[in-house]
Amino acid sequence: MCDEEEGLKIIDHLNECATFTESGNFIDADTALYHLSHLASPHGDSMQRVATYFTEALAHCQLAKNMRGVPKVLRLVRALSTPEQQLVKKLFFDFYPFLKISHTITNQTIIEAMQGETAINVLDLSPSSNAEQWISLMQGLRERLTNTPYLKITLTAIHEKREVLEQMELHLKVEAERLNFHFKFNPVVSTLESLDPETLPIKKGEPLAISCVLQLHSLLAANDDEMVKIRVQRDFAEMLINQKNKKVNRSPDSALSPFSPCPSQKMESFLNGLWRLQPRVMVITEQESNVNGASLRERVCKALSFYGTLFDCLDASASRTLLGRSLLEKMLLGEEIKNIVACEGVERKERHEKLETWIPRLELAGFGTAPVSSNGIWLATKLLQSYVPGYHIHQKNKFLFICWEKIPLFSISAWKF
């Protein structure tokens, strides 16, 4: 068991290791890793457990900076198979309430936006293996549409694995037949990065809803040299605008700034493509975390705060001896930590940013804010009562945050064409 003093030592050693690694002082960084190896434990409390994966990530980071070929070889040795990927996603769904809350609020927001329609399109940019979200949507639609016996539902789902889409289609067609819906499934085998929204098989003219859960941030990954060049261009453009308007320069992290601190042409193009689909509603769930900085020490500090809280949630709700919990920590949370800390450029996919950065990015693409379903909030709050105390939903303006204690962990926002 780690006491408060040891917990502070862990944090100090992690920050020291990140600082030494970033500056190229690998001797002192190695010393910090040595101390961490005696304090961290995959079987200890939440701080010791999360420190295990940060220590491993920093070790990989040192390898990446010293020997470029070694980390690539290590990554080639073991990659999760499709069944393993689906397993860890299911474990995340089962152990935490976050996805259930997201699905509940997203579905209710879609149902209210589609009131009175006899044909709807849904675009799922983050399909789950068990299709649970869309089975719940169908059930909710059937409850609300007692006076509309006929409803045509077209679901377009994106996934890089065809077998995942085939399983989705199988489950959804069974449920659609049971509920007497006319159902069409459009499987699109693609990664989000290579997807052009305007080529999707979505029928123009029919009302469209878009759901994107914990996926958009991956589009922020870009070549580092390209990002620096774009950032310089953006900073110069903002300076000219501020001079013209005689305004004081704002921090690039300001929620009011239309210039992203980490610009991405890929993201801009993708959001513009979604806007041209003219969705009636688009619901986005993202990590309320800021781990997309250029500084390694900053990333370690921000990620430690976010993932440390996720480990605290598990400590409060699940036994440390559960096999599923240890698999979730190692195969999902640990791998995300490693990606944030040890990877750079296009390989760093886990580039979480806070909602205050997403708002101007989406507004620049043309989207306007839309209210989330009040009934969805009520149902989600009721759902949280089945979990340990500590989880709650905080509403600020039109936006929602799923929190542990006072710490926002995930944001849910709704947008319209």
Automatic annotation (TrEMBL):
It is found in: Nucleus. PANTHER family: OSJNBA0084A10.13 PROTEIN-RELATED. A motif (LXXLL motif) lies at residues 216-220. Signal peptide: none annotated. One of its GO terms (cellular component) is nucleus. It holds the Pfam family GRAS. Belongs to the GRAS family. Keywords: Nucleus, Transcription, Transcription regulation. It comes from the Eukaryota. It comes from Vigna unguiculata (Cowpea). This is DELLA protein. Residues 342-416 are annotated as: SAW. The lineage of its organism: Eukaryota, Viridiplantae, Streptophyta, Embryophyta, Tracheophyta.
